Amino acid sequence: MKKHLNRFGARTATAVAAMVFAAQAAWALEPFKVQDIRVEGLQRVEPGTVFASMPLRVGDDYNDDKGAAAIRALFGLGLFKDVRLEAVGGVLVVVVEERPTIADVDFVGSKEFDKDLLKKTMRDIGLTDGRPYDKALTDRAEQELKRQYINKSFYGAEVVTTVTPIERNRVNLTFSVVEGETARIKDIRIVGNKAFSESTLKGLFDQDTGGWLSWYTKSDRYARTKLNADLETLRSYYLQRGYLEFRVDSTQVAISPDKQDISITVNVTEGERFVVSSVKLEGNFLERDDEFKSLVTIRPGEPYNADQVAETTKAFADHFGNFGFAFARIEAVPEVDRENNRVALVLQADPVRRAYVRRISVTGNNRTRDEVVRREFRQYEASWYDGEKIRLSRDRVDRLGYFTEVNIETLEVPGAPDQVDLVINVAEKPTGSLQLGAGFSSAEKLSFSFAVKQENVFGSGNYLGVDLNTSKFKRTLVFSTTNPYFTPDGISRTLDLYYRTDKPYEDQGGNYELITTGGGVRFGVPFTEIDTVFFGGALEQTRIKAGTNIPAAYLAYADRYGATSTSVPLTIGWSRDSRDSALAPNVGRLQRLNTEWSVAGDSRYVRANYQYQQYVPLNKKFTLAFNGEVGLGKGMGGRPFPVFKNFYSGGLGSVRGFDQGTLGPRDVTGASLGGPKKLTFNAELIAPFPGAGNDRTLRVFTFVDVGNVYGDGEKMSLSDMRASVGVGLSWISPLGPLRLAFANPVRKYAGDRIQKLQFQIGTSF
Question: What is the pTM of this model?
Answer without folding.
Answer: 0.55
